[in-house]
Records
---
Amino acid sequence: MLSNNQKKIVLQTSNLLKENSGDLLNVFYTSLFEQHPELLNIKNLGDLEQTEIQSHILSTIITCVEKIAKTQNINKLINTLRQQYTKLEISPEQYEIMGSYFIQAIVKILKHEASAETRQAWETACQQIVDIILANDIDQNININSNNPLESQWNTFVVKSKVEESDDVISLYLTPVNQTCIIRHLPGQYLQLKMFLPSLNKEVTANYSISSIPNDDYYRITIKRAHKEVNTMQERLTNYLYDHLAELDLVALTLPKGNFTLNSNTRDKVFLSGEIGQSPLISMLETIEANNYGNHKIVWIHTSKNKNVQAFKNKIRYIANNYPLVTPIMFYDQIDETTADLAQYQGQIDFDKIKEYTFSNNADYYLSGSKEFVEKLKGDLKARNINENQIFYQEYAPEQ
């Protein structure tokens, strides 16, 4: 635990690290790979395409340390770190190695500010973060093993069907080869998927949110084809699944993961999504509809270029027609008269335009989309005095 003096030290030096985050990133990974070139062989970790994720990890660690020094809750940040480590396939065995080089990079960036006391303060704080992550990993493994103790890390699934959801979005219905290899996910969780890509001559893994309602028979993942220049491994794998994967093909999946899940309470639920970010939210919405949760309001707010590229539009309309407490609100770049039966506005999501719902602290807010999308809406909600502990979010860029 940080002493009071150590708390002052990390708070005094954290801003300097943030101001020099680019140099910190470069020093950290350069020295790490020079001394441990074997880490370059770990899927995704040595990928130069992952720079944005790597940068996000370092900034999240610094923010965690600041919150620890201020005795603030870091549970959300810890969950974000765990998800990023999973995406980069960083195992607990690498935590200690990476941690030592992170501290070395901090010392090099701080220069004359890097006294022995400063180094010890950052070492103590970073170790505290690792201890929390490992404790959470142990808890999660206990929960997973208690649900299905025979489960291995990767399991083979077959593509039962491939369904077109819009002009550039498809859903894959995946059923297990071994029926014991499927467990009911929590609405909002994701899967890791692994496939061999012939163009790269190697296996690639990526994360995809489960868009189906929890069930014992299949998982549904919903993906959007990348039309821009393909840069990341996630985009390459996604386009391969979109263009080449066929029914009866096989893929490898992990168990469901993630802490971005639906809360059971009596507050209203407001779902805010951008483009393919609606995937985990549709699982939450269908779960509420199927189980007839309470009598609180459900508000579905989605932004898309137009109705042609919007997935699940018929599903949303069906749920709204049969579940009176659901209010769908759409924001389109291009308004279409054929969607006039839905509340719709032009442009990006703007709370000031919405007349169908009054934003208040009597609701939980679930945000899913790009980093820019999530950050903007978090700011808009906080500007309306929405409590931070009622805002739940998952960022997709640049992975999806």
---
Amino acid sequence: MMKIRIISFTSRGKALARRISSVLKEEGFEAEAAVKNSRDPESLKESLSAWTGRQFSEAQGIIFVGAAGIAVRAVAPFVKSKAEDPAVLAVDEAGRYCIPLLSGHLGGANALACLLGKRLGMEPVLTTATDINGKWAVDVFAAKNGLFIQDLEGAKKISARILGEEPVTLKLQEGNGQVEGELPPEVSLFPGDGKGAGPHIFLGIRKPSGEETILCLIPRRVILGIGCRKGVSEEEIALAVETALEEAGIWPQSVRAAATIRQKEKEPGLVAYCRSRGISLQAYEGEELKSLQGAFTASSFVEQVTGVDNVCERSALLCAGKGGKLILPKRALGPVTVAAAEEKWRVDFD
């Protein structure tokens, strides 16, 4: 659930901020409104700068109800990049205009402005080139479909091609993914005839092989299966995973979660590895893993210790769910075994 924080500076602005908060809650957002006004008994005690800095690390969207200049000065010290910054919008206290200032596409500021425009009668003031020209935006497409943009400069080049009326081709990697909906007129599927350059956009969990592309879009649909000895360190797990993924040509950014057997779910090194990389850790009982049908790389030692002939392959595939596919068989690296499975996934152009 997207966390939105709203701040106002006058009594009129406070009333609008509360209306915005109410509408956003109705739309499924987690929204809170604050006020910074020395004449208001509910005014924030902390400085505007401190409040803004905190929201940059905690919230996915910040709305300033007041002059755009206030918002610009408040956020300036905390701006990092379009890949990291939250959506930032400015709304005049009369509620006439809603202006996305930061993260219009990736952070969803443009979509948020359009939503408020629809619900509260504001006019969204969009300044991003693809929007004002009515063109398909690759970063909006990536954000809506949960895709990692491997190179933001590449995304800019794709937008430049589209704005320049140049053709853009897309190639979907063979595997568990599929394209749904109708492609926009600016994009066509790569013919794959082996002539000339590769596709402009490559969509998949693996790195393209032998094809030059402008941009890779990466679905977060890979599940790591991890087995390890007692006392393994975070660094040892990281080295094993990185080595296995690199050898298999799998983007590390495609990893969504890790899975293991119940006996290992509190192993400090494994817990630290998952936490530091922002991925969830799913643990299964031995009987659940044993019940999974299929051909797995068996180990008598692992079975003696855990009661299951294979932990990493079975846990990855079980976590990947129905239609999941083992894409990286068991790879043993020191005290760690690694496998990976790909979930079924789709991208939608509608």
---
Amino acid sequence: MNYFIVGDIHGCYHTLKKILKHWEPDDAQLIFVGDYINKGKHSKEVVQYVRQLQKDYPSTKCIMGNHEYQMAQYIFNHTPKTQMKDNYKNTLTHYDLRNKFIDDAKWMRDLPMYYENGTLFVSHAGVNFLGFRKFNQDSRWSVLRFRGKLKKMKKLQVIGHTPTEVGKPVYMKKYHVLNVDAGAGNHDALAAVLINKQGKLVKTYIEKVLKSDY
């Protein structure tokens, strides 16, 4: 089976629905690289839609992003609100994760940090070149937030987290890494890629973020 991998969504619900029109469930396993929430207007709708996709298509893989991790810290470990970045404001104001939607918060908290099979290694940010503290959630070296020189693997490593400068996925040959964050969080574009079972890029999909999402 092929793989349909979606980049950072950041609350862009309508754009997400548009890009998923390119996905053929019978042909490709659906994978998300994390950062479902914040920045865009529709974090709740994105999370609940993605969770429904997981129920409808059990092979779907959802990776934790740094935004889900930080939100879970706020909800369950009581991070002071003053430490939450401005781009969390819309979510904190309009998405009652402490009470009404606590199950969504638990889902964020329990997301895996990576997905790996014989072809792919998918994480939100990349594996740092030293492999140092890569799964330490609080570390800047972790696969939740590392930005820098990456570890080159035999498998294709697919990441998000750092928006590409060209508004579309970028393959970094020296690391054998494909970055699929096209900048939805900056109101630029949402990207998805179709990868075949040999780990080769087949097709790229780009949708400009709709105004209804910001």
---
Amino acid sequence: MAKVGYNWLNLPQDILLEVFRYLTPEEKANIRATCKYLKQLVDHPTLWMNSTIVLKNLQSCNSLFWRTLRKRRIRSVVIKEATQKKWQRMVNLLPGLTAVTIDVKKNLESLRTLTLLVNLQKLQLSNKLQMLDQELLREVTIFKQLTHLILCTSMFVHNSSLCHIAELTKLQALTLHVGQKSPLASLRYVLFRLPKLRELSLSSVDIWDNLSLCFTSPGMINSEQTEYDGLEPQCISHLQLEKLSLLNSINGPLSEAALKQLSNVCSLSVSLSRPSVSMNSNFVHSMLENLPSVTELELCWTGPFTEYVKILPSDLASLDLINTRLSNADVQLLSDSSGKTLKHLGLVLCSGITEIMLKRLPKQFPFLQTLDLSGCRLLKPDILLGLGELTFLKEIVISNNPHLTDVIMKQFQTLTDNRVHVAQKSKRNLNRCDCIFYFQSMN
């Protein structure tokens, strides 16, 4: 065994790093503890370039901890709790941070400390921030270099406070999750003054009177009343949104003018908070029927998929269904329209799934590369082995499955020559805000 271990350590570092890239953080930690050589390899920056470190208490972080983070070139952190002094120390020790999430109560001094992070591009103020007021948003606009801004809060103090975001002209992604009715005029003001904005996520859309107003050019409105007192940013004529996410939603059809402004949307995510009285009046229908560029769709609702499957955009490349009621006929219709183009399919916590449906997947969607069957308890050993027929499959998610033992998993890996990664946890929300408004849409 010692000889085998010695030969293994003699492998080129590039090969070892490639192997380590597939390990979980826990597995990396176990290997790191074996010897100095592997410790050095595990701390290589290429293994941590997309990692986010959660700092629950900066008080307990010693110099060795900070040295390890610098060695790994950590660029993204989540701060749970910290004093102003510890904030300052973190900024001094990790000056290369590009993404920071603040999970504490309003602290303007902490925000001012972050101004020393000249490379900061992503800032998230999470749901424990109970009040989103004008003073705080003015502080946020200090970070002119921001490309991603995530705001999760319970309410606005002043309707025009949101207008300050228009100063962040480099923004590419904006997440606004609030618990109260959002100021539509202020949001429209912002959207049409961010020329580089490509991604937008809104929550609690069901309490908005007219969603179309957000996506209608100010030039088409007789007057636009805002109390923003800053330098007036230039207004753009057409939105360039490519990704749109609407959580806790139910609204009437969008206007023709609004749909034209959303013509570039290719990725759409919608969670319906409750069924509408008439599905034909639902704004999701108007989007699916009038946005032909959509190739990625995520739909979260407890109703039947039948209501939407006939109006889905053709040639979908990615589809996630969450809590949706399925039928064999629905899946067949999906196969007829997108069977040759669909590369990702997620059936998360869906009802109506049958063993026959699962067994037909390889023939109905032969080009799948990723398959998420989280919560599917009908995924039995023979069905899993049958999914090995998916020649292009790279990853399958099988969380909360009582039937698949380690022996079965080894058989599946052998059958597929270890080309398929079996995950126990879905990765679909890695880049999504995890605030309370999202979780409400999942319940």
